[in-house]
Amino acid sequence: MSTKVSESTGYVPNVQMSAFGYVIAAVLVIVMLPVLPILVLAWILWRVFVSEEEMESSYETWRNDPNRKRLEPPFEEEEEETEEEAEAEA
Description:
Largest sheet: none
Order of helices and strands: HHH
Helix content: 40-55%
Low-confidence stretches: none
Radius of gyration: 37 Å
Region (Disordered): 57-90
Pfam families: DUF7535
Keywords: Membrane, Transmembrane, Transmembrane helix
Transmembrane segments: 20-46
């Protein structure tokens, strides 16, 4: 027989699952602690010898870039008067 939602007793802490989670976390910490200095050393060597220093793009460098394509302000076109408009004004 299954429990209906309306008959649910609510949240109850599951001590066994909590204990299992803490045991697994402790095992992971114990296993990873000796590996941590090796990972740090590998990361430092990678940064020094292999990784290229990529220039991060930012608004400041983009704004000051002399080769950047700049928009020119719009120019107002001069209207040429037609003969009819010139006669109407006169």
